[in-house]
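Changelog note: in this version the structure field was regenerated for every chain. One regenerated record is shown below for reference.
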Amino acid sequence: MKTYHSRITITAILFWLCTSVQGQNVSDGFTAEPIPDAVWQKMQGKSYVDNPHIGRSDLRYLRVLHWDYDRQTHQGEIVCNRLIADKLLSIFRELYKAHYPIQRIRLADEYDADDERQMSDNNTSCFCYRVVSGTQKLSYHARGLAIDINTLYNPYIRHAKDGSRIVEPANGKPYADRSKQFRYKINKGDLCYRLFIKHGFIWGGSWRTVKDYQHFEYHPKQ
């Protein structure tokens, strides 16, 4: 009986420790702050270039937790517009609680702000000063008001003037057929979709002329 009770006690202690650590991670894992010096330095010449539209004070640095199919907690980093910082924290908290799978959330600068590279790696990211693919129009990402989720499995699709179909990233072509079921797929009505719509975002998967299944953007009220 002594051995039995000892095992129970040890098990209870281990459970308490695991629960305590996990609780601490959840508490500390969702934060927003002005862009730290080290992050700002990393962004220069990559996701950020001098421009007349947005500056350092307009942006926020977020740390969020996320789950993946490995059933492990991962720490992610996001740079976004300060106008949506609280919205993103709320959304990612809910996604984390529901164990919604997101493979990786890294800054665009980890990929030298190369959109094809980070999309092909299924990276989730927000701010990057760039134009919309195939145009000269400034992207909502350039203002930190758009975020792309699980990008490889939710590609950007448009048709060129010659009638050919362009899929970005290139290795996302198998996932352009939205009638198929596969991991990381964003569907209209799923949790990811519902949370972003609830917080005032527009989903690129609902667009008519192009389809951007990874993309959610926020239009501030004038």
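Spot check on this record: The chain has a mean pLDDT of 89. The first strand starts at residue 31 and ends at 34.
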